[in-house]
């Protein structure tokens, strides 16, 4: 048998396999499930994912909130379209291009030495960059045979596609509204003990008239996420020396916190539990913008406003 004859026979057998078996359906459902699991896992750990997007330093905090949810919506949409079989060739091609773009981003992270996991499956499954690249490659191989499939069509195809699109877009916003949609609501709950704070400030005078005090517990998950928010703003403005971190925890916990958040504050100190909890009223994180001994603005995790901190720091 000539090589050309062998390729012809192989193509005919593959065509027969796809025409007379359920293999195309299995591939569609399998890839759809992977997209769906990826989106659900990101949504379940949306706080970590949106801060990861923000920590890239390319987008504002509010834009990072929206972009994180749009990426999840896109995965939901692709999963729904693959299951429906609508416009299968185009959806498969778009999925492959998207995975290729993600793979290029992973290669860039490897090149610059970034070791933080890419949140492909949120916090549920933390994958190294090489393993994520392998996952994308397998994913692309599953999608390649679907490029030869025409997909299903019906008089209701457009309506069904619109329903999948709108549902995919709405779900992340409904299940986990971005924080900046409810800043005013969260801000009303941000309080601190004025008397306890004044005692602390008298005992710990600042070197500058304007400074940022951040009260963090070393084991507090949201404190670490808040610290990453503050760190990005401080790096963008070049004002890290005006950020002071006040910790509840021992020195080992503090160093672990700083290493995990990659924060290099101007100063940091620790407080005993009772004093810390009295100032913060038992809730953390707490971030205060100070002019002398007067609090200009106060934030916790949900009502943190990037623009306010940026403007405060740039005036220093």
Task: Describe the protein's architecture and organization.
It is a single chain. The chain has 316 residues and is α/β, with parallel strands linked by helices. The chain folds into 2 domains: 3-181, no CATH class; 185-314, Glutaredoxin (3-Layer(aba) Sandwich). Helices cover 61% and strands 9% of the residues. The protein is built from 13 helices and 5 strands. A 5-stranded mixed β-sheet has the order 3-2-1-4-5. Helix 3 crosses helix 4 (61-84) and helix 4 packs antiparallel against helix 7. The longest helix is centred in the N-terminal third of the chain and has 25 residues, at 88-112. The radius of gyration is 25 Å and the shape is elongated.
Summarize the structure.
With 316 residues, this protein is an alpha/beta fold.
For the structure shown, list the relevant keywords.
5-stranded mixed β-sheet, 13 helices, elongated, alpha/beta, 5 strands, Glutaredoxin, 316 residues, 2 domains
Task: Give me the secondary-structure topology.
Layout: H1 3-20, H2 23-44, H3 46-55, H4 61-84, H5 88-112, H6 129-143, H7 157-175, H8 183-187, H9 194-203, E1 210-217, H10 221-237, E2 243-248, H11 251-261, E3 267-270, H12 273-280, E4 286-291, E5 294-299, H13 306-314
Parallel strand pairs: 1-2, 2-3
Antiparallel strand pairs: 1-4, 4-5
Helix pairs in contact: 2-3, 2-4, 3-4, 3-10, 4-7, 5-6, 10-13
Estimated radius of gyration: 25 Å
Number of strands: 5
List the total number of helices: 13
Low-confidence stretches: none
* Total tally of structural domains: 2
Mean of residue pLDDT values: 85
Main β-sheet, spatial strand arrangement: 3-2-1-4-5
* SSE class: alpha/beta
- The SSE string, one letter per element, is HHHHHHHHHEHEHEHEEH
* Helicity, as a percent range: 55-70%
- Proportion of beta-strand residues: 5-15%
| Biggest pleated-sheet summary | 5 strands, mixed
Q: How far apart, in Å, are the first and last alpha carbons?
A: 80 Å
Question: What shape does the CA trace take?
Answer: elongated
């Amino acid at each position: 048998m000539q090589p050309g004859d062998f390729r012809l026979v192989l193509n005919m057998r593959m065509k027969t396999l796809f025409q007379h078996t359920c293999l195309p359906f299995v591939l569609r459902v399998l890839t759809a499930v992977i997209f769906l699991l990826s989106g659900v896992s990101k949504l379940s750990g949306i706080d970590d994912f949106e801060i990861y997007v923000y920590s890239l330093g390319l987008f504002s905090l509010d834009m990072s909130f929206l972009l994180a949810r749009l990426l999840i919506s896109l995965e939901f949409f692709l999963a729904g379209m693959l299951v429906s079989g609508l416009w299968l060739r185009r959806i498969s091609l778009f999925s492959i291009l998207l995975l290729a773009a993600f793979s290029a981003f992973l290669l860039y992270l490897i090149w610059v030495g970034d070791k933080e996991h890419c949140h492909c499956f949120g916090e549920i499954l933390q994958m190294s960059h090489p393993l994520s690249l392998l996952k994308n490659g397998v994913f692309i191989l599953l999608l390649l045979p679907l490029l030869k499939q025409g997909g299903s069509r019906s008089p209701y195809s457009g309506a069904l596609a619109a329903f999948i699109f709108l549902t995919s877009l709405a779900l992340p916003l409904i299940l986990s509204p971005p924080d900046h949609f409810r800043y005013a609501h969260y801000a009303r709950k941000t309080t601190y003990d004025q008397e306890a704070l004044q005692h602390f400030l008298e005992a710990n005078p600042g070197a500058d008239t304007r400074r940022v005090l951040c009260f963090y517990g070393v084991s507090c998950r949201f404190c670490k996420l808040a610290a990453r928010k503050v760190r990005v703003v401080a790096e963008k403005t070049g004002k890290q020396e005006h950020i002071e971190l006040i910790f509840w925890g021992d020195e080992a916990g503090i160093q672990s916190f700083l290493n995990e958040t990659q924060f290099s504050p101007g100063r940091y100190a620790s407080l005993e539990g009772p004093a810390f909890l009295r100032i913060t009223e038992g809730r953390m994180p707490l971030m205060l913008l100070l002019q002398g001994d007067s609090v200009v603005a106060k934030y916790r995790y949900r009502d943190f406003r990037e623009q306010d901190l940026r403007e405060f720091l740039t005036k220093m």
